[in-house]
Structures are given as C-alpha cells and as structure tokens.
Amino acid sequence: MRKQLLISALILLFLLAGTTIVVLYGKGYRFGFNRGTIDLSRTGLLVATSTPDGAQVFINDHLTTATDNTINLAPGEYTVRIFKEGYFPWEKKIKIQKEVVAKAEALLFPAAPKLESITITGAVRPVLDPSQTKLAYVVASQSARKNGIYILDMSARPVLTLQSASTQIADDTIDTLSLASLTWSPDARQIVATIAGELRTTTYLLTATDFNEAPQDITATLETYHSLWEEEKQEEETSRLTTLKPKLRNLISSYFSIVSWSPNETKILYQASTSATLPLAIEPRLVGIDSTPEQRNLKEGSLYIYDTKEDKNFDLGIEANIETQGQSALTWFSDSNHVIFVEDQKIRIMEYDGSNKTTLYAGPFVDNYVFPWPDGSKLTILTHLGNLAVLPNLYTISLK
C-alpha cells in the first residue's frame, strides 16, 4: 500500500515538475550552467514572420534562423534584418523584454516589379472611391459612344485581362462627359461629373453601378447635395469617434486635424492642429508594443500617425504637402500598417511608424495618381511611360 502511494506521489511530483518546466519555458526561462552551477535565466521571445515566407532572419548581422520561427533572446535591443532574394530587405531595431513576445513582421516588396496595362485608349483624371475599391476615370480619345466615364472595380473577381476589367457608366451622346472632373459620393454609389465651360458649368449626377442613359442635371441643386454629403461625412466621423474612450476622443479633438483613418480604423493619419506635447491616453504603457521610438512633441502642421490601440505617435518625417491637383500624395496601404507616398518623383512605401522606407517605382508617372489594390497585390498608376506623344494609361505595378 505504501509502495503504491509512493509511486503515485512520485508520478504526481513528476507531472507537476514537468508542467512547471513547460510553463517556465513558454515564458522564456532557460536553464543553463554558469561556473558549474545550474542557472535559470529569463529571456524574451521574438516571433519573426515574413510575406512571402522563407526569408532569412539576421540578428545583429548574424544569420540566426528563417521565417516563420520563434527565437529566445536575452533582454536588450537588437537589429533584426529579414532578407529574401529578389526582394527589398526589411530592418528594424526591436526591444526584447523578459517574458514578453516581440514581433518582427516583414512585408517584403519585389525589387523588380512587373508592369501591366489596364487601359489602352488613354485615361484621364482617375479618382478613387471612399471604400478604396473602385476607380473612376475618363476616356476622351475615342468616338462619342466610347468616350465617357468608366469604373474599374479592383475588388472584383480576377478577369482574363485587366483591359476587360472596366465598365462604362456614361458616354458623350448627352454631353461631353469626357471633359468632366469626377467626385464620388460618400457612400460610393454615385458620381458627380462637373463640366466647366467658358460660359457656364454643368454638373451631372451618375449612378456608379449602371449605365446612365440620361444623366441627371443637378447644377441648380448641387449645394444641396454637397450639404447632405457633408452631413454624412460628419456622421461617419462621429460614429468612429464614439467607439473610442473619452480620454482618447478628447486627445483627438484637441490636437488632430484628421487626414484619413487606416482601412481597419485603428490608426489615424493627421496634421497637428497645434504645437504641443501629446499626453498619454493609456497608462501604464502596454507591454509588447512597437518599440520604434515615437514622437509626442507635436509641431503644428506636421504629419503624424497615431495608433489608437497602442497609444503611440509617430512622426512621418515627410513634407506636409498632402494634396496636389486634388489627388492625395499620401495613401493608406490595404494592410493598415503601411503608407504609400510620392517623394522626389518616386513612389515609396513605409511602415506606419516611419521605418523601412522603400522605393517601389522610380519610372515616369503622372502627378500623384497612385492607388493601392484592395488585396495589396498591386498598385495602380497613371503613366505614359515617358512617351509624351501618347495619352497616359492606367497600369498596375505588381507587389508580389
């Protein structure tokens, strides 16, 4: 009987010891020998991932592992570099804390992207809708029936060719809509087409989902539509803010002139409305958050990105000229972790904390007409590829 009790006690002790060791190992504890004695040290965990996967992970210039993998590291700051042949490298300084999981999540961009044309008859004044899934543009080089306004639905199922992905919603048989400038309604269901003539300006309201045989002339009531749509925008903004805690709402209203929200509505691109020190909204600070140094000393008019989940604020370090010819020079990438911007006539991308600035395209393109594909697989640009004798067309730049 005593022998059975002893065996049971030993089994229970073994299970408890094994469970304790597993828990400690999961928290980052590691056993070792230091000067002949058993040493128990606490480490942190680094989870290294990449898209595409199978990239090399260098820690302080030493090839350590490959993505996707978890690495135990002693507390401290490390330079983590993720590299895959054919792609631009990713690098960031990451702080490792004991018993805390840090993440190195690298989105790698191809060094030699592929260009593919969407239009072949010329495209003018493309405009992205509020949902960032549809592109409206004008064709003005064809016959009256083929001229007009077209919609490219970038969220639609793959088609055989990109040239067949656009749908015409209006032509020039009623008026010269190929001369119009376009504006989307807040719900992306309608388009306002404005034709500015020498003697008068005419404005039409178009349905964005069907062909408009007889576009509605709203020139006389345009201000009413603008007023209604402005109310819709304000209601949408109010709805976003009401989901935040009061302290965070006060911070935003006091210091932010909002430019845009990230697609997942967790980050805010804004211009500082005043020079001040941005107070903390979450105390104590969260553990395991982005360890990139932030900037809470605001300079009026400068551009920043604020992370509402982590209460961290980052200076973008780029010029505050956010709009040229009505087209934004700064656009959120579809993953909500990157921003696309135009700098020195190059299309660049960087992480929301200002790190890993990468030039995606350095060839010719028109103005700031750069649009991300909803699934992050491509960028759409307007370019004549350096040939000024032809009309510019829409092209995609592959990012995978």
Keywords:
400 residues, four-stranded antiparallel β-sheet, mainly beta, Immunoglobulin-like
Task: Describe the protein's architecture and organization.
The chain is mainly β and 400 residues long. Among the domains are: 42 residues, no CATH class; 65 residues, Carboxypeptidase-like, regulatory domain (Immunoglobulin-like), CATH 2.60.40; 160 residues, no CATH class. Helix content is 14%, strand content 41%. It is built from three helices and 33 strands. The strands form ten sheets. It has a four-stranded antiparallel beta sheet, with no helix packed on it. The longest helix is centred in the N-terminal third of the chain and has 25 residues. It is globular and about 95 Å long. It starts with a helix and ends with a strand.
Poorly predicted segments = 20-24, 31-40
Q: Helical residue percent?
A: 10-25%
- Counting DSSP E segments of at least 2 residues, the number of strands comes to 33
Oligomer: single chain
Separation of termini?
A: 68 Å
Strand content: 35-45%
Mean pLDDT: 88
Shape call: globular
Please tell me how large the radius of gyration is.
Answer: 27 Å
Strand arrangement, largest sheet?
Answer: 5-4-7-8
Number of helices: 3
Main β-sheet, in a few words?
4 strands, antiparallel
SSE topology:
Blueprint: H1 2-26, E1 29-34, E2 37-42, E3 44-51, E4 56-59, E5 62-66, E6 69-73, E7 76-83, E8 90-96, E9 101-107, E10 115-117, E11 124-128, E12 134-139, E13 148-153, E14 166-170, E15 181-184, E16 190-196, E17 201-207, E18 216-217, H2 222-242, H3 246-255, E19 256-261, E20 267-272, E21 276-277, E22 297-298, E23 303-307, E24 312-315, E25 323-324, E26 327-328, E27 330-332, E28 338-343, E29 346-351, E30 358-361, E31 370-372, E32 378-383, E33 393-398
Parallel strand pairs: 3-9
Antiparallel strand pairs: 1-2, 3-6, 4-5, 4-7, 7-8, 10-33, 11-12, 12-13, 13-14, 15-16, 16-17, 17-18, 19-20, 20-23, 21-22, 23-24, 25-26, 27-28, 28-29, 29-30, 31-32, 32-33
